[in-house]
Structure formats: structure tokens, C-alpha cells
Amino acid sequence: MAISRAEVEKVSLLARLLLSEEELDKMTVQLGAILDYMDLLNEVDTNDIEPMAHPRDVTNVFRADECRPSLPREEALANAPHRDAECYLVPAVLGET
Amino acid sequence: MSLTDLTATALLAKLASGDVTSAAITEAFLRRIELHDGQVGAFLRVDRESALAQAEAIDRKRRGGDPVGRLGGLPVAVKDVLCTRGEPTTCASRMLESFRPPYDATVISRLKAADAVLVGKTNMDEFAMGGSTENSAFRPTRNPWDLTRIPGGSSGGAAACVAASMSPLSVGSDTGGSIREPAALCGITGLKPTYGRVSRYGLVAFASSLDQIGPLAWTAEDAALLLEVLAGYDPADSTSVNLPVPRYTETLGQPLENLRIGLVREHFDQGLDGEVEAAVREAIRVFESLGAAVRWISLPHSKYAVATYYIIAPCEASSNLARYDGVHFGYRTDQRAMVAELEAQRKCLEQAGDEAGLDALDNALVRLYRKTRSEGFGPEVKRRIMLGTYALSAGYYDAYYLKALKVRRLVRDDFDRAFGEVDLIAGPVTPTPAFPLGAKIDDPLAMYLFDLYTVSTNLAGIAGISVPCGFSRGGLPIGLHLQSPPFEEERLLRAAHRFQQATDWHRRRPRLAADVA
Q1: Quick check: B373 contacting A, CB < 8 Å?
Q2: What confidence tens digit (pLDDT) does each residue in B208-252 have?
Q3: What's the pLDDT at A97?
Q4: Structure confidence at residue A96 (pLDDT)
Q5: In this complex, do A11 and B308 lie within 8 Å of one another by their Cβ atoms?
Q6: Cβ within 8 Å, pair B209-A55
Q7: Are B24 and B4 in contact (CB under 8 A)?
Q8: Which chain A residue's Cα is nearest to B338?
Q9: What is the pLDDT of residues A14-67, one digit of tens each?
Q10: Among this protein's residues, is B371 annotated catalytic?
């Protein structure tokens, strides 16, 4: 089940990546080869097999519902590439036509 | 014998007896780093001043008769995937080049509480994705046994710094073999604990159901010492288990009566290098001579492990790495240039009257994400994000991700059955010794297939260790892989220790010329 260049381009948007023409070409070939290899799994009969998402059978782990200190705003913002005194700043998107 | 040739256990004895100070030991290892790391490239950052200050503080404690922690003044190197408060934590990625975490990973807190001297952060494949450390955005690490070859990965710096005697102990992470594989290729001991044994809090996430932190050192004895400090329940990681941590160093010398070792038939199949096979078979004979009963077993689904792993790990990675958006922390593209480019594209489409093109054009926020991520991530990380996103996307989810999760269950069932018959499973860690830098860089699938013996340990969530068991004719180290049922690290360490009492592969040291000034 090889992957087409158009699909690779579509996935790059889903993945929030922007690939150059050259990268798209290379990615199409490489992902194609990798996905071809994955077809090996079609040999395996997995009817009635329960999927295993995790090595341990964990259920939700709750802590007591009590107030605890959280990361102070200044520390949370300290690594932001672009910010003001209180918020992360991003390019305007609302109000676009 | 110089201090840097000694094991952590031997150094600790000297520290405890007052023979030597932590400052002297730390200085000796820092000197090794200065002499040799220019050519090896194991470290991304060396904290000389703070390491010496920590060492002196611990020496003062000891002199004053105050209690000293378990690692009482021993240098420890830390893979740059573990958050250190206020200090750069890059994951060897441009994306995190300037990131300074606001908190310490739990294992960092535990190391500090144990009075370890943190000497620096080690190089790795970007975001721990790779098996050669060539995917570091900053520099490759070279194998101390042959500088033209890779050290393995992704914890390549962690393994190389121990092998080059630049640190007696080192902490790595293992998602599909990233501790065991570089340990094997660098001729040292590396242990991947059972999933849940060590807290992952503050470990930058790659694949959350597979990642585990563990020790690298020359000997099983030293690995036991470090694991005692790393392991334990942590309320901040809900997948860490609330089980007591055995005193691994105390039980290490206890004999393993009636040990049953299984050899996986499928692992001695085509693709295994003859010299690696010979060394591993010889290691098995050593265990037999020590009284172990060896038998062949089958893990029928092992041939599907690589395909299963390289669906599940990228799926989890694509989700985990969605957080790198150029907004909250880390790299961000030049916003002004990005907006100008977008406007130019819009004008161009408008002039052409291309309505469909205009509809498809990114808005500024989406373009910010896309430019940021494309500039911040290297090729292998992009490849895995793409693979994971594809395998999780509508229409392919069942065929890839769900299918892989089902085969994962079968891989785990194979182990459960096998461990009904044997106590440990033994085999090779890697199909060949270390390969030359660049040999597989353009062939991702070949790189993935190099992981065929190690990925199932992570899929199943069990424990595994790599132990030096020989050398190729070309002088490259070879590793023996031992795997145990969940939470039987004690058994692994005892077996590895017993083996190391009968062999001297773990005592060999590479010869490194001083860096050319």
C-alpha cells in the first residue's frame, strides 16, 4: 500500500509541517518503502485479539482533590518565544476574511 | 591506575574510606572530557564549575561527618532528554536549543538527593529518535573504540562518555533499544528497566507507552548502584509502580540456582553477523559452565516486532511532539518574514484568480506552526511525525495503528509463554557491531531493522540488559542481551554480575589519543 505524493502533502498539513518540493519527493519514496515493509503485519491473524495500547493495565489514577501550588505565571511564560506580561502572543487569526 | 579507569563501585569505596575526595575524582573526569571529548562528542554541555562546586559541597559534608547520599560524590552524566531546572535541555534539537525547563525531572531530583555530581548533558539522536546519534542537530557522537563508527543510539553520548572514561555513570532512556544498543556497541553495560520501574516525570516524551529511563556503566554492579537511586514510585508519574525497590547491590552476589536460559530461535536466523553470533554463543557456554540450563525457545511474533514498533512509536511521537508549536516554548520561526511570505503568496494567488489556491492557503497561525516545526525539527523527527500522523489518520487508523496494537499483544503473549519455561531470555543486542558513520543515514528502513532484537522488550514492557561479551576481529565490542519478566531487574543484574565475574570483557578500555589542539 504505497503512499502518493498528494497524500504526503496532505499529511504534512495534518502534521503541521511544511515540506519543500525536494522533501516531499524524498518523503514519498521513504514513507512508501517503510509502509511497504509494514504490510508484513497483514500476515498476522489478529481476529479476536484485544489491542494493547500500554504495557500495564492502568486505569485512571486520581489524586486527592485538593489545592496545590502550580507553576507561577512568570515561570510558565519564561520560555515563550513571544509574549507580553500575561499571555503568549500569536499572529492574529480571528477576523480574517 | 588512574581514577578514571576505576568503576563507580571502586570509586565509592575510596570516597567512603577517605582515600580520595569527590573534587579530585570530578576533576579527573573533567580532565578526561577536556582531553578527549573534542573527538568523541559525547557531551552537549559540560558543567565544570557547578560540578566542582557540588563535589566540594559533598566533600565538606563527608568531612563534617554529615550523612552522605547513596552516590556520595560520584560524577554522573545525564542524557539531554531529562529536564534540569533552569539549565538547557535540548533533546539535541534546534527546537529546544534555548529551552530551560522550570522544573527538574524526578530522576534528576533523585540523583541530587543521592549526592551525585552532575557533570553535564550527553548527546543523543534528536528527541531520542534514531540508533546512531547521527540525528543530533548539533554534532554526531563517535564510537570511542573506532572514531569512524557510530556509538549506537539514541543514548550514544551516554554510552560513549562511559566507554571513554569521561564519567563512571550515566543515565539514558530506552524507547526501542536506546540504552542497550549503544551500550553493546560501546562495550559497556546498559539496563532498560521494566516499564513503570523508573518515573518518567521530566523525561521529554517520545513514545509514552515505551519510554523508560535507565543506567549505563562499565559493570552490572555499577548499574545496580545507579538503578537503586533512579527507581521508585513517583506520584507525578501515574504509570510508575508503587512497588518497593530492591537493594540491587546487596543481592547482586547471590547465586542464581537452577537458572533456565532461553535462546530465541528466531534471533539466530539470517541477518545475524557471524562474529556477533559466535560471541553470543560463547557467552551462553559461560552461563552453562556456571550451571545454567539452556534451551531453545520460540517467540513466533518476533519477526513482526520492528513493523509493530515503527507504527506505534511514531504514532505516539506524532501526538507527543504536537506540543512544539512555536508558541509556548522552544524555537519559533521569524514571524515577520513568515507573514510577509504568506502575504506575497496570497497576492500572487489573487492576481491569478486562483480561488482554490486561496482557499487552501494556510492562515497565519497554521503557517506559524508549519514553518516553526519544519525549521525546528530534523529529517528523522519529521519522518516519524509524518509516519505517525499518517498511521493515525482517518482511513488508515485500523490498518496500521489498531493492527499494530493487536500484534503488540501477541508479542507480549509470546514473552509470557516463554517466561513460563525459562527465567531469562538471552541473545544478541544488535545484528552487527558498530557501523561506519553515514552508512545507513539515507536508508531509514535499514536503520529501523537494526533494532530488531531490542524493540520487543519495550513493546512488552519487560526489562532487558546489555552486557559486553566479546569483540569483533576489528576490535569492536559485542553485547549480550538478557531479558527478564517484568520487575525482575534483580535477576538480570545478578546474572550479568555472575557473567562478569567469569569474564573480563567489561574490563577492556578503548585507547584514545588526546585531542589535537
Answers
A1: yes
A2: 999 999 999 999 999 999 999 999 999 999 999 999 999 999 999
A3: 47
A4: 54
A5: no
A6: yes
A7: no
A8: A91
A9: 999 999 999 999 999 999 999 999 999 999 999 999 999 999 877 788 889 999
A10: no
pLDDT digit string (tens) for B90-102?
999 999 999 999 9
- What's phi and psi for B242, nearest 5 deg? -90, 70
Q: Say which range, A65-69, B112-116, B453-457, has the weakest mean pLDDT.
A: A65-69
Contact B364 A92 (CB under 8 A): yes
Domains of chain A plus CATH, in order, are 5-42 (1.10.20)
- Å between A64 CA and nearest CA of chain B: 11
Backbone phi, psi, residue B78, to 5°? -125, 130
- For residue B54, pLDDT over 80 is answered with yes
pLDDT at B516: 62
Interface of B with A in 106-165 (CB under 8 A): none
Q: Which of B261, B268, B256 is nearest to B284 (CA)?
A: B261
- Which phi and psi (to 5°) does residue B418 adopt? -60, -40
A7's CB contacts (< 8 A; 6+ apart) are B390
CA distances from B44 to A37, B130, B158, B424 (A): 35, 17, 11, 36
Q: Domain segments of chain B: what residues?
A: 3-268+420-507, 325-375
Q: Which residues of A47-77 are buried (b: 16+ CB within 10 A; e: fewer)?
A: eebeebebbeeeeeeeeeeeeeeeeeeeeeb
Question: pTM here?
Answer: 0.97
Instruction: Tell me what the mean pLDDT of segment B6-17 comes to.
Output: 97
B461 contacts B309 by C-beta, under 8 angstroms: no
Q: Is B232:B489 a contact under the CB 8 Å cutoff?
A: no
From chain A, pick out residues whose CB is under 8 angstroms from the CB of B400: 38
Which of B292, B169, B289, B232 shows the shortest CA–CA distance to B489?
A: B232
- Active site annotation includes B154: yes
Q: Which residues of A touch B307 (CB under 8 A)?
A: 37-38, 40-41
Contacts of B366 in chain A (CB under 8 A): 13, 16
Q: How far apart are CA B120 and CA B118, in angstroms?
A: 6
Element (H, E) at B277: helix B274-289
pLDDT 10s digits, B386-440? 999 999 999 999 999 999 999 999 999 999 999 999 999 999 999 999 999 999 9
| CATH architecture of structural domain B3-268+420-507 | Alpha-Beta Complex (3.90)
Best mutation target among A7, A8, A16, A25 (most B Cβ atoms within 10 Å) is A16
